[in-house]
Amino acid sequence: MEKLKCLLFCAVVSLCSCDAYKILAVFPVPSPSHGILGDNMIKHLLNAGHEVTYITPYASRQKSNPKLHIVDVTDHHSFFNPDILDLTEILEGTVNFKDHNFVFSMMMHIAAMTLEHKNVQKLMRDPQQKFDVIIGEYMFTDLYSTFPAVFQCPYIWFSTVEPHWMVMNLVHSPMNPAYNGDYMYANIPPFNFMQRVQELWLQLTGLYHHNNDYYQREEAVYLKHVVPILKEQGKPVPDYNVLKYNASLLLGNSQVAIGNAVPMPPSYKHIGGYHIDDEVKPLPEDLKKILDNAKNGVIYFSMGSNLKSKDLPDDLKKGLLEVFGGLKQTVLWKFEENLPNQPKNVHIVQWAPQQSLLAHPNLKLFVTHGGLLSLTEAVHFGVPVIAIPVFADQFLNANQIQHKRIGEKVDLSHNLPKDLKVALDKVLADLPRYTAKVKEMSVAYHDSPMKPKEALNFWVEHVVRTRGAPHLRSVALQVPLYQQAYLDLLAVLLAAAVGILLVVRKILCFFKPQKNIKEKKN
Ligand SMILES: *[C@@H]1O[C@H](CO)[C@@H](O)[C@H](O)[C@H]1NC(C)=O
User: Which of 14, 162, 369, 388 falls between 20 and 30 A from 85, CA-CA?
Assistant: First the structure.
């Protein structure tokens, strides 16, 4: 018996150790939700027995683990912090997040800062460092695809939002703009004529920039900060244009049940929801009491870290309190400051365990900025939402929420209290219908052969086991866009038509010799 136990134990140990890989995770974007996605990804990889080297601007909050090696890029916070979101400008409607060039330049700058960072340079120059696979976050820059040139191993993109043409272009081809919108316009298919034209134009101009000015700027960063290392180490120096399109896989923080059912290449894998804990952590006593005792249910209002109380005008705060005070439900508001004249049914908390709240049966409605993490959690736990989008893909998610009838959308403006009241009345009057809809979505989301975190581990390991998963590589990458759009055929047909016209003209001329001679004399 003892022998058998020992044998089993040895077998298990050897199984685990042969499947343990060395992974480099590149998550340098200094923004809270990106930190959550990075931290949870490495958590699952570590739990699966892998050894992870993690490039992160959130170094201080990482728990020490012998299998985790931190490459600290905390300095990134000094360049970029979410406070650049000026709420007053958003309220006035004067801010322009829809400026692609602004977003790209900022993200390219963060990528350049990462590649030239002393800790990252040290990592790249260390001949002892070897990895089985690299996972890099796609955040509007292709530059992290240059890491595999240094470590000569397969590369996996991770995309934090719904699949979009820019990231799909790296592993397949851009998406058909007739039914795949850019997050910027937040259009939900089916599009009308003008929307289709708009989406096509945006993709065409976007692709032009990606292949020209952005490409050159990124290539310059590669040449400056990576190529010298390759030369020093005597490694081949691939073209940036090759590295960009050489990823083995694209992991997406998405789920078909939540987004749109659009055709995806085999190298795209949905892992949305992996950041949600398997076990719901118990609520702190005070919150538990509030939720347990709320006879009319609880509305949870949290704008995440986007809407800072210090930026919110007093009349807005007062207006919101009045609206909440007029409800029969209990309102839990996550906010940094306590407000005067708080109605009895309103509780302001500085911090709240969002997932545990959403899991509580008395939680009836979630008022959120509509970020994808919050939306996924709402669907996971089956709670209807009112979205007040502030920036980035939140507008798209908010439109999706409305389109799928799992909630409503409210614009962030000086009229917020009034508009929110309208939305609250609408949803609360029809709560069972909204709840049924989101529960339906929740069932579709959960009914899957693998949990998101299992899919994450499986596909990362699959890439290592199959040496870069060349069998998943989309054939579309070998077919230039003009061929995919049959522009070459169009050119042939046009040329043929012109040729035929010329021939016909020649023949006609032949039968009118007199006129022909006259013309020649002239
Ligand atoms: C492209 O990726 C594959 C699979 O990881 C790898 O074998 C190959 O060396 C890479 N090509 C270049 C030019 O880096």
Answer: 162
Identify whether residues 117 and 217 lie together within a single domain. Answer: yes
pLDDT of residue 7: 55
Find the mean pLDDT for residues 384-404. Answer: 95
Evaluate if residue 518 carries a pLDDT over 90. Answer: no
Asked if 233 and 371 sit in the same domain, the reply is: no
Q: Is the CB of 466 under 6 A from ligand 1?
A: no
Query: Which atom of ligand 1 is nearest to 463's Cα?
Result: 5
What's phi and psi for 325, nearest 5 deg?
-60, -25
User: How far is residue 356's CA from residue 365's CA, in Å, rounded to a whole number?
Assistant: 14
To test the pocket of ligand 1, the residue of 24, 170, 227, 246 to mutate (highest count of ligand atoms within 8 Å of its CB) is: 246
Residue 299 lies in a domain: yes
**CATH (domain of 375):** 3.40.50.2000
215's CB contacts (< 8 A; 6+ apart) are: 240, 241
Q: Is 468 in the pocket of ligand 1 (CB under 6 A)?
A: yes
238 lines ligand 1 (CB under 6 A): yes
Q: Which domain holds residue 110?
A: 19-276+451-478
Give the closest residue (by CA) to ligand 1 atom 6. Answer: 154
**Runs of H (alpha helix) within 19-117:** 32-47, 76-79, 87-92, 100-116
Mean pLDDT of 453-480: 98
For the chain, how big is the Rg over CA atoms in Å? 28
Q: Is the CB of 239 under 6 A from ligand 1?
A: no
Residue 483 has pLDDT above 50, yes or no: yes
